[in-house]
Amino acid sequence: MIFRNSILIVSIFTLLFINIPLSKAQSSFESPEVSQIFRNIVEITDESSIQIILDDFFITENVEDVERIEIIDISDVGFGSNDILVIYPSRNVYVLDQPSPSLLEDMRTWSITEQRRDGLNTLSADYFYPHHADTLDRSEISETEMELVMGSMISDVIESVNRNYHDMPISMRFERGGLDEGFTFQIWNYNEDAFSFQSRPARADTIAVNDFLYVVFNDSTVVADTTKYDVLYISHSSEKTIYIPPFEEQYIQNDGPLPGHTLFQEGTQASINYRRRD
């Protein structure tokens, strides 16, 4: 049996009548609350499989006129009885009764491959982002690639929602098809007055976590206040700096007098070496 499993988004509305006569309810019909639900849907295109299903549920449709059928798990308890079957292209709709044991066994195997993660609204975006994955070697990380990616995507979504929407609740959907199909982004169940655009915070232009600190040193020339018997303490420290990517270093020698040499009895010549980065 050939089928394709996906998720169906169904719009629903709720209308409450409280002690209102029918005639009055019809004359003062209030606007219903419209939302959406997600349900699994199976699409079957194989003619022999379609025939098996039509026969099992005693549906009197000519299989030669059927391009495909869709079965919607409307009750969200797994495929079986009380599901909805839609015929295409006629779009005839049938509510399914109890299937035979053999067909029910096959229908119970229909499931969608999904990844889901739930969390509390009190958790911040940083809680979900796998910061350790930015610095540790991949061999030291126990999570799967899927878990790392999901945490990163959840963190980005929460960060953007918190920055641009200042209320609860809100619902959204993002679905992307093939290269020539585009994508769909949808939001609903929101308070329009709670939207407030905030610019994206500044981000590092290279590495988000491991930025480099560049230290520029300066030299000082100490001139003694007298020309004899002064003690001059000179301290020296050095560090090894690794530049990424590496660059060529050029050493330039400058022979000339030190500043303040005229205060001494004899001129002093010194060689000063410095390093210039190309």
Describe this structure in words.
By secondary structure, the chain is an alpha+beta fold. 17% of the residues lie in helices and 24% in strands. The protein contains five helices and nine strands. The strands form three sheets. Strands 1-2-3-4-5 form a five-stranded antiparallel β-sheet. The longest helix has 20 residues, at 145-164.
Q: Which class do the helix and strand fractions yield?
A: alpha+beta
Mean pLDDT: 79
Count all strands and give the number: 9
- Secondary-structure element sequence? EHEHEEEHHHEEEE
Largest sheet: 5 strands, antiparallel
- Mind telling me the C-alpha Rg? 36 Å
Low-confidence stretches: 14-18, 266-274
Helix fraction, binned, reads: 10-25%
User: What does the overall shape look like?
Assistant: elongated
Proportion of residues in β-strands: 15-25%
What is the topology, as strand order, of the major beta sheet?
Answer: 1-2-3-4-5
List keywords for this structure.
278 residues; alpha+beta; 5-stranded antiparallel sheet; two-stranded antiparallel sheet
Can you describe this structure in just a few lines?
The protein has 278 residues and is α+β, with helices and mostly antiparallel strands.
Write the layout of secondary structure elements.
Layout: E1 3-14, H1 22-27, E2 33-44, H2 47-56, E3 68-72, E4 84-88, E5 93-95, H3 101-107, H4 125-128, H5 145-164, E6 171-176, E7 183-188, E8 249-257, E9 269-277
Antiparallel strand pairs: 1-2, 2-3, 3-4, 4-5, 6-7, 8-9
